[in-house]
Amino acid sequence: MTDTVKLVSLAVANPEHVIFQSDAGQTAARLFSDRYADFKLLARVFDNAGIFKRHAARPLSWFCEPHGWQDRMEAYAQVASELFVKATTEALYRAGLNAADVDCIVTVSSTGFTTPSLEARLAGYLGFRSDIERVPIFGLGCAAGVSGFAIASRMAKSRPGATVLFVTLELCSLAFRLDELTRPNIIATALFGDGAAACILRTQSQGLAEVESSGEHLFPDTLGIMGWKIDNTGFGIILEQSLPAFALENIKPAVSTILARAGLTIADIDRFICHPGGSKVLAALETAFALEPGSLDHERDIIRNYGNMSSPTVLFVLQRAIAAGLPRRSAMIAMGPGFTASCVTLRSVA
Fold first, then answer.
1. What is the pTM for the complete model shown?
2. SS3 annotation, 121-154
3. Residues with catalytic annotation?
């Protein structure tokens, strides 16, 4: 019998700079209150977001000055490379492997880019083989932690015995804008942080969890819910105010459809492992899946200490869930630009 795809190891990493939410709120007030009439109303998000601290690619003072594309992408190239190396090295160590054992790398990121892509730039430093297969993916946003994990697991399944490295990395803070006097931009300054995660996936008998199924659901006519607008200064966030309400109404039917394709139902899921997009989104997910309020405890703990890091955040949650002991079947869920819902089911190997 062919071995199923296993999550062999998981590691996370963050930049060195820490921004406390109280400092972020005070700095935002200094930068925006005199220029944006509704700032006092929006300022409550700093207190209500459920965030205590976040990590950032640059110290808080850096964000008090104007920056263009060159500054932002130079910072991305430097810090993203550091986090890629840190997360990958730890994931390989935990798997008992080295870089030369890796056959394929799937890298997802939507908050910056380099060409050549990160894994190519770092191949010599880390020691990847010259015949390694590289799959860099841009544009999946917050859903990429689950969608990218699914892509990597399918590549591992299609090549039994191959070692697949999945890296998800976001530097959301580099999109903070002084010139954007908009509600989405100010809310973003209260929510987003930076981080990375790396996984080793392969077909074998042992691992942290078995990858059982995966799928996505693309909602029609929803391009304006989340994404980037791009101008001469950099990325500008698109973030629809109705996202929690949209999740409340649509996430359960979408996930039910994805699960049905694998012969599963919502009732088969013992634990949801969700991307914590924000406190209101978490409350909407608990209501949608008929969970007790506060059930998504790992999610709240992660967002409190790291903020919304976009795609890697769900893997930070997964790491906590694994440490606590996975139940028989879990479902990783994330939503992102498109607008898309992505789901991967995991089975316990204990």
1. 0.94
2. HCHHHHCCCCCCEEEEECCCHHHHHHHHHHHHHH
3. 142
